[in-house]
């Protein structure tokens, strides 16, 4: 081919592109033999990707274009000489199959297909440096001129990649011999790994080609499957598998769970998914693949011990997991797996397509199976009825009225069998019936319930796990499954034993009007399978934290007074304390109920002793609140909670209006003494250790407080937000606290009498 019109290019060395070699040999290192050159007009550029330069894959861009036809006559040689060349500016687009221009005129009137490009090489001019790429096609040459060498190389590598991936797509879409196909796949993987281009599609495009190949050739042997998986493993080290490939991996995990590929190839892939995935909702098949991988591990000889080692490897050997996405992703996988066990039952209510049917493309109404019959089992099944009859007893609780409904059905089949899931939905509190799961679904449920147990054993994961599980994100059918609730009870017990407030506070409902774990595992709850031991444990940890408040006690009195009295009657010290606090804070207004509580307390030794102490405190309280004593009081610096308690027990303080505890060592514990002062209007807590828990208690009992100084105290938004109920506040000092701007704006809105506010050295300043 003659570029300069006189056979000049034929007499020069040039870099032979790998594109002109056979497909299987593209990754080998070789160049065309150099030809003797006669002129110094052009020099070859031996381009090597190992130089360390990296480029972004181009999809479009502006470049100068010149097209030279092969000269056939003397006149055409003159017309195509370098002195008469004409360059045209074009905005070229690199599509999947061709090179086209946004303005299809002139040289680029028709698109240039990658399949027609015979050769692709770099050129540089000596006399006037122009950075060019030469594309050879039958009958001529296309020259592309870039502004600089970097842009030229970027165009060169992008064109080279597009041409190669186009050829591989054509070859692998029409496979003939699978031994040849495997070699092509390995060459494709090597090409992607050695490319100097940096783009997500560089690794994703080969994976999509291979996933399409596998989807269209489902008759491959298991050995061919494993060979292909091993071949593409290097691409998966830093890339998520595409959805179709995930489906193929899921199938392999289900059919060959004991294959070494599961351990050696899938393990790093799943680890990467759990560490880096941000949203399973965008790619649910990644979650499904992770789920099937875990189930495959459970099928190994070690069973759940292997799964436990995998979970530990994801957490790491230290006390803190360095990957913040691991726990949310693991929980998402567990929740989806547990839901899938009941998916058929749940979707049978409205005959809506299940996730499995959607994945299989069966979304049309006429493609769906009829609703699956539901079987409900009693905890203590009676004598089996005749085969042609079905007798079901369902307890319904609606509007606090209980009714027993006895329904007899005719011969099994047809429309005579009721949809009992609807019955469960009508009465969420029904716990006498449970759905019988197939054996495989039961194994899945047990496996992922155990994983939740494992997650709860890690101290650093427990706060986030408690927060994720606080809304009770399980089907109500699962909560009626005895085995599942037993495993889940261990998790809730771990939450109840954790001293951190951010953990055990998640036992309560996420919002008012919705049940939380506290309600589910209380006596009478759907998940309670004991005599209230877990309930008492939860109450104990909550009362020991910042929940010794009127609001919490009032909720217990309204909803759980019966269980509390029963456990107190059995000598449970926590419940005895609860009943005493209800009497002390005047939570119970009904006199008969008060007398019943007193009788309950006096029936046990521990209750009798604590009730006597309550009576003593009440007498002291009456003495303390008796009119008289000082109106102003200042404690010496370094005073403690015990000093304050001792002082207030020494006389009457019914007239005390101004109390200064500034620069003392009092903490939130002194709030129990402060709430006994009925006339207190001004409280100075400057530079003390008074915190959020004490602030919440004050907000419930000292409604008349007008002036409050919290300067340099460790209070945060969690406690400051409770001040919104103290409508009498007119002066509030929050200088040097952890107050935020949002909380400050909220307080200004809810405290109409607030006139004097100090928020210096806070975020709200």
From TrEMBL:
Gene3D superfamilies: Ribonuclease Inhibitor. Pfam families: PH_21. GO terms for cellular component: cytoplasm; nucleus. InterPro entries: CMIP, LRR_dom_sf, PH_CMIP, PH_domain. SMART domains: PH. Residues 57-166 form the PH domain. Keywords: Cytoplasm, Leucine-rich repeat, Nucleus, Repeat. It is found in: Cytoplasm; Nucleus. It comes from the Eukaryota. This is C-Maf-inducing protein. PANTHER family: C-MAF-INDUCING PROTEIN (PTHR25480:SF0), LEUCINE-RICH REPEAT-CONTAINING PROTEIN 73 (PTHR25480).
